[in-house]
């Protein structure tokens, strides 16, 4: 009996060691204890399809079923019931430490989780096309709001007229975040980028930004499909068709994502404050605490624009994203109110039916 117990402990230790390459740690082990006592095994979600997801466990990969209520996402930690005369199934998700959430693609009041339990968000842009500053700011807001650390990565630096100038421009767009120019062709910037990418890393960017090519350069092998881009606008087709996770050779894991055409904000107040940290800091010096930086006397933000310290475009972008975020928040509040009202209607209907039933007895 003791021998069996020792064997079980040894098997568990081997499984934990195998999962540690995917980010398993002591805190996760502690939170998983109730599930382990129920005979479930820990797993990390590495890819999701409709009704099925690929997970990695201490014993190897599995394809498991899940219910719509579970809503797993790439990066989630899960409790899985192994096959025992039936299909393996995802039973529960562990609480997410971080989550990258954008507004639903249908512009509904529901958010869409792009990746979970992420440590580093790499905002990827192509140096071969004109920089879309607004898109970078949106992705940075998503990254900061998630609780992860953003890094801005310019790919195809070998095709840029002024890689140093581009890096400086990106640094201005990303106060508090690192910016690095890279080239998968020459190897420029890759060593520095590897030092910046820690833990679970997700690549976010538009189609054609070079995410999969960058991922292959970091992996040291052509594991992810890549495609050509249109010369006129640098846009590419979705060579990555779903979010998928692969281990990095120097530790950590990498999540590649399909190109994002729309990047709507969802509950990103803190993310916006971090993305536009210099405006937030300047606003502390405004004469009026409720200054909205339009025509107020003593406005430190307007003074900084006039002196050239920050651009008017930067302030306009901040206002635009704040309005969008507030609009989505209002839609979400309205949906929640409607759901509460519907629940109360159901409860009231049930109560009335119960009263009528009692009156007939």
UniProtKB/TrEMBL annotation:
Keywords from the named record: Cytoplasm, GTP-binding, Hydrolase, Metal-binding, Nucleotide-binding, Ribosome biogenesis, RNA-binding, rRNA-binding, Zinc
Q: What is its EC number?
A: 3.6.1.-
**Compartments (UniProt record):** Cytoplasm
What domain of life does the UniProt record list for this protein's source? Bacteria
Q: Where are the membrane-spanning stretches?
A: none
Which Pfam family, any one, appears in the UniProt record?
Answer: RsgA_GTPase
Write down the Gene3D superfamilies for this protein, in alphabetical order. Answer: P-loop containing nucleotide triphosphate hydrolases, Probable gtpase engc, domain 3
InterPro entries hit by this protein: G_CP_dom, P-loop_NTPase, Ribosome_biogen_GTPase_RsgA, RsgA_GTPase_dom
Q: Which cofactors, by name?
A: Zn(2+)
Binding annotation for GTP: 155-158, 205-213
Cofactor binding summary note: Binds 1 zinc ion per subunit.
Keyword flag Signal? no
Q: Which GO terms describe its biological process?
A: ribosomal small subunit biogenesis
Enzyme kind, highest EC tier: hydrolase
Q: Which CDD domains match?
A: YjeQ_EngC
Gene Ontology cellular-component terms listed: cytoplasm
Q: Which residues bind Zn(2+)?
A: 286, 291, 293, 299
Task performed by this protein: One of several proteins that assist in the late maturation steps of the functional core of the 30S ribosomal subunit. Helps release RbfA from mature subunits. May play a role in the assembly of ribosomal proteins into the subunit. Circularly permuted GTPase that catalyzes slow GTP hydrolysis, GTPase activity is stimulated by the 30S ribosomal subunit.
NCBIfam families cross-referenced by the UniProt entry:
ribosome small subunit-dependent GTPase A
Its family remark reads:
Belongs to the TRAFAC class YlqF/YawG GTPase family. RsgA subfamily.
> What quaternary structure, including any partners, is listed in this protein's UniProt entry?
Monomer. Associates with 30S ribosomal subunit, binds 16S rRNA.
Q: What HAMAP family does the entry give?
A: GTPase_RsgA (MF_01820)
Q: Which PANTHER family match?
A: SMALL RIBOSOMAL SUBUNIT BIOGENESIS GTPASE RSGA (PTHR32120:SF10)
Instruction: Provide the protein name.
Output: Small ribosomal subunit biogenesis GTPase RsgA
- The protein's organism comes out as Saccharopolyspora erythraea (strain ATCC 11635 / DSM 40517 / JCM 4748 / NBRC 13426 / NCIMB 8594 / NRRL 2338)
State which gene encodes it: rsgA
């Amino acid at each position: 009996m003791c021998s069996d117990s020792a064997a079980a402990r040894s098997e568990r230790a081997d499984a934990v060691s195998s999962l540690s390459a995917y980010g398993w740690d002591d805190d996760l082990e502690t939170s998983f204890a109730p599930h382990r006592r129920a005979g479930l095994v820990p797993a990390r979600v590495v890819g999701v399809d409709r009704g099925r997801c690929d997970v990695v466990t201490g014993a190897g990969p599995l394809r498991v079923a899940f219910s719509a209520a579970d809503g797993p996402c790439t990066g989630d930690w899960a409790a899985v019931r192994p096959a025992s005369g039936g299909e393996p199934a995802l039973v529960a998700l562990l609480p997410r430490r971080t989550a990258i959430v954008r507004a639903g693609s249908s512009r509904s009041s529901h958010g869409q989780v792009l990746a979970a339990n992420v440590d580093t968000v790499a905002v990827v842009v192509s140096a071969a096309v004109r920089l879309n500053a607004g898109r970078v700011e949106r992705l940075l807001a998503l990254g900061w709001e998630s609780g992860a650390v953003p890094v801005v990565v310019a790919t195809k630096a070998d095709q840029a007229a002024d890689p140093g100038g581009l890096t400086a421009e990106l640094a201005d767009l990303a106060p508090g975040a690192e910016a690095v120019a890279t080239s998968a062709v020459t190897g420029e910037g890759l060593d520095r980028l590897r030092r910046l990418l820690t833990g679970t890393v997700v690549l976010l960017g538009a189609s054609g930004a070079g995410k999969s090519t960058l991922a292959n350069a970091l992996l040291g092998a052509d594991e992810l499909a890549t495609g050509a881009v249109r010369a006129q606008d640098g846009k590419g087709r979705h060579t990555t068709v779903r979010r998928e996770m692969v281990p990095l050779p120097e530790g950590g894991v990498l999540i590649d994502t399909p190109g994002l055409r729309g990047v709507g904000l969802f509950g990103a107040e803190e993310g916006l404050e971090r993305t536009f940290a210099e405006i937030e800091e300047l606003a502390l010096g405004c004469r009026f605490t409720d200054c909205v930086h339009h025509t107020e006397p003593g406005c430190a933000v307007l003074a900084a624009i006039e002196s050239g310290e920050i651009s008017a475009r930067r302030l306009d972008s901040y206002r635009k994203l704040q309005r969008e975020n507030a609009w989505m928040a209002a839609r979400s509040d309205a949906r929640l109110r409607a759901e509460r009202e519907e629940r109360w209607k159901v409860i009231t209907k049930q109560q009335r039916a119960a009263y009528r039933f009692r009156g007939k007895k």
